[in-house]
Specification:
The complex is a heterodimer.
Chain A (H helix, E strand, L loop, with lengths): L23 H6 L2 E12 L2 E12 L3 E5 L6 H7 L10 E9 L2 E2 L7 H7 E4 L10 H11 L6 H14 L3 H4 L12 H14 L4 E5 L7 H14 L4 E5 L3 H7 L2 E6 L2 E7 H6 L4 H7 L5
Parallel strand pairs in A: 3-8, 3-9, 6-7, 7-8
Antiparallel strand pairs in A: 1-2, 1-4, 4-5, 9-10
Helix pairs in contact in A: 4-5, 4-7, 5-7, 7-8
Chain B lengths: L7 H34 L2 H32 L3 H34 L6 H27 L2 H9 L1 H21 L4 H33 L22
Helix pairs in contact in B: 1-2, 1-3, 1-4, 2-3, 3-7, 4-5, 4-6, 4-7, 5-7, 6-7
The chains are: A alpha/beta, B mainly alpha.
Chain lengths: ~280, ~240
């Protein structure tokens, strides 16, 4: 049908400014927390990401979607320099956090990863107590010295992660004894404990059941008041539910990015359209 | 059609909705045409058949709504698939109303029967219904081709019906003033004319829905309005 084309009838819109806004104006008002310019990633000779440029708005949720191998996780890992740890990986282009080049050689990578926290697909608590899981980061970063300080950080982080009430009576039991959804929230509490600005989430709900997923999604919605969140997800419905901005990746390229409401109701690129409507061959 | 979905039963479900909407369009079109023909020919038997047919459209609309809800729940359609499903729901509602208009005209056939109908008024009504049916036919064509251009053209032409309706309204009014014995029949004819004018409005609604389905944007700007009957007064003819 005709709608399969890119903007087939743009010429018919008499006044584009009046057309449905899809939250674009609201997004445009936000300052840019992370700015990527022409980011390319090579694994050895193979190029995995091609000249990706995108602005990540402050205190909003940005979702990266796309088929497996499209480069979305690769790009996510660039934002806290996790690709540094991969043998043969090379990153080109520029990524700025608050206007500061995060690949600047003088930058302390450990400090960067405190500012840009990460939550992974599978919950991965340390084999320690719930308390220690949260207190560990602040302690090694020198953010806490006394037991009272530790307690304060642990309680407030667990509260922010919506886990405190469920675990307050067993803070010294192993984190691994919690349910999957609780473990994931423990990992979010652990990330929050070091006071990050940005939280990266790589498919944080793919190992969870729908109820645990809903709890995490509700948490993400609360966290965006104070943090900039970037989430990689295979669930388009999840991207549509939790994010304000969506970026679609395909074959290592950023194909389209924009307000989430627009991407999911009226995307411009045929590849985006085919992917979100389930037509990808 | 765009490329098929990976899940082929999803395609089947969307095609089903599309087919049902097209079927409804065909029935609604025929009901309106037949009801005006019955009015002109004072054919009470035909009128009864049309009245009985309306239930088919009611059932079809209910079926489309139920199926569309299941598609939304099961498939969580996105982008133009979602617009397709929403469009089917909206257009089915408009077509069901068009059927009601046809049914209402058919109901008036008996009431108008027997009274002397001035030829030029009946001709005027026929002409009005031809315009409305053309609009309906073209908007249904625009639906089957998903043509935003054709949908926009239908919308732009609605003022022709409105202008024709306004002039018919004046004529009926004049006729009633000339002889009070005409009032009963003319009032029924006036409602028939109003029904036909409303059919034009539904065609315009459908055109706007099709435009949205095809482009994802709304048709902007005031749509042409030629219905001036709200200000027509008996003394001012």
């Amino acid at each position: 049908m005709a709608s399969g084309m890119n903007f087939p009838h743009a010429e018919l819109t008499p006044n584009a400014e009046q057309a449905t806004d899809h939250g674009a104006a609201e997004l445009a008002q936000r300052s840019v927390r992370v700015r990527a310019s022409d980011v390319s990633v090579f694994y050895g000779a193979k190029q995995a990401l091609f000249d990706v440029s995108v602005d990540i708005p402050d205190r909003a949720v940005t979702a990266f979607i796309g088929p497996s191998g499209c480069g979305k996780s690769t790009f996510l890992r660039c934002i806290n320099r996790m690709n540094d740890t991969i043998e043969g990986a090379r990153v080109g282009g520029k990524i700025e956090l608050d206007g500061e080049d995060i690949y600047d050689p003088s930058l302390d990578v450990v400090e960067l990863r405190a500012r840009v926290g990460m939550v992974f697909q599978k919950p991965n608590p340390f084999p320690k107590s719930i308390f220690e899981n949260v207190a560990y980061g602040p302690r090694i970063h020198g953010l806490i010295r006394t037991k009272a300080e530790a307690e304060e950080v642990v309680v407030s982080s667990l509260r922010k992660a919506g886990l405190f009430n469920e675990v307050k009576d067993r803070l010294h039991e192993p984190g691994t004894g919690l349910s999957g959804g609780q473990q994931q929230r423990l990992c979010i509490a652990r990330a929050i404990a070091v006071g990050p600005e940005v939280i990266l989430m790589d498919e944080p709900c793919s190992a969870l059941d729908p109820i645990a997923t809903a709890i995490i999604e509700e948490l993400i919605d609360e966290l965006r008041e104070n943090y900039t969140i970037i989430i990689v997800t295979h669930s388009m419905q999840q991207a549509a539910r939790v994010s304000q901005k969506t970026a679609f990746f395909h074959l290592g390229n950023l194909v389209e990015e924009g307000p989430t409401d627009k991407i999911f109701t009226n995307p411009e690129d045929k590849r985006t359209q085919d992917y979100i409507t389930g037509r990808f061959g | 059609m765009s490329d098929p979905h990976i899940v082929s039963s999803f395609d089947e479900e969307l095609k089903y909705l599309m087919r049902r909407v097209s079927e409804m369009g065909g029935i609604a079109e025929r009901m309106v045409g037949d009801s005006v023909a019955a009015l002109v020919a004072s054919d009470a038997g035909s009128a009864q058949r049309i009245i009985a047919e309306d239930i088919i459209l009611d059932d079809a609309e209910r079926d489309i709504n139920e199926r569309a809800i299941v598609v939304i729940a099961k498939r969580q359609p996105m982008a133009h698939d979602l617009r397709e499903v929403m469009g089917a729901i909206r257009i089915a509602a408009d077509l069901e109303r068009v059927g009601d208009m046809g049914k209402n005209i058919a109901k008036r056939v008996v009431a108008v029967q027997g009274s002397a109908q001035p030829k030029q008024l009946v001709r005027g009504l026929e002409h009005l219904s031809e315009l409305a049916l053309t609009q309906l036919k073209e908007v249904l064509d625009a639906y089957s081709t998903r043509s935003a251009v054709a949908a926009n053209q239908v919308r732009q032409r609605d003022d022709e019906i409105d202008a024709m309706y306004t002039s018919l309204f004046r004529e009926l009014l004049t006729y009633m003033m000339e002889d009070p014995r005409n009032i009963s029949a003319c009032t029924h004819l006036l409602f028939c004319a109003k029904n036909i004018e409303r059919i034009g409005d539904h065609a315009t609604n459908i055109a706007e829905t099709i435009y949205y389905m095809a482009t994802g944007d709304r048709l902007l700007g005031e749509r042409p309005r030629g219905d001036k009957t709200a200000t027509v007064m008996a003394s001012g003819h």
